[in-house]
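pinned: reference chain
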Amino acid sequence: MKTKSLSISFSEGVSVSVDSGSSVSMPDAFESSVREDLVRRAVHSSRANRRQAYGHREHQGRRKPVAGMKHSVEWWGKGRGVSRIMRRSGSREGAENPHTRGGRRAHGPKVAKDWTQKMNTKERRAARDSALAATAQGEMVRSRGHRFDSEVSFPIVIEGSEGSIEEFDLNQGTQRFIAMMDAIGVGEDLERARTGRSIRAGKGKMRGRRRKTPKSVLLVVSDKSSIGKAARNVPGVDVVVAKDLSAEHLAPGGDVGRLTVFTKEALGEMR
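pinned: its structure tokens
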């Protein structure tokens, strides 16, 4: 599979010009069949394997009472015609039992629970190749909700007209990066991600996850030390090194067809 790259050149300020570049041979992975079921399973497995163990503390009496066990209680003993549960001191009201008001949970989450999901290495690689193939199909990318110009052809490969595109000038770097995305026809998707940020529902907003940001362009590079700094402040944009590429980068949430831009140097490392 071959495609034409886009040659990027920068002039004064943040102005960018795009010309037709050289012919590029794509890795064999781009000709794989799209297996959405395999990709979704790989993504769910990757997310499950990152889960941290959580659960209640072991009850240690009055020294460190856990939720539902913070009452002053007494036991009435046997032979009084009532159930043998703990009751609030000086009251008939039951306490500290799963079926009583304000009591503990019956079967709370256990720290020892294993959340991991095993997946064969060859299956994981096949899922990554399948997700790569989906990025080369414009109708799949559009059906995922991404916005781009009608004349954009997939897969999108960029190269520098003079030297490597990854040796990015960080003077006005973020503005230059946005201008470059506009020039190749995907700037509308950056705007979609910027305006689509919203406040998260639930308690996550109090735990460092206040905002949700839509996923936008994925930039695949061979070295992100320079261009990664220029792109890291753009909402929705992710920069990943080719050797670290996974199905989760290419199909967030298990939905194939992420809008992906490859540098010519990154394709050289993917073969």
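why pinned: Residues 250 and 258 are 6 Å apart (CA to CA). The helical segments are 36-48, 121-135, 138-143, 173-184, 187-195, 227-231, 247-250, 264-270.
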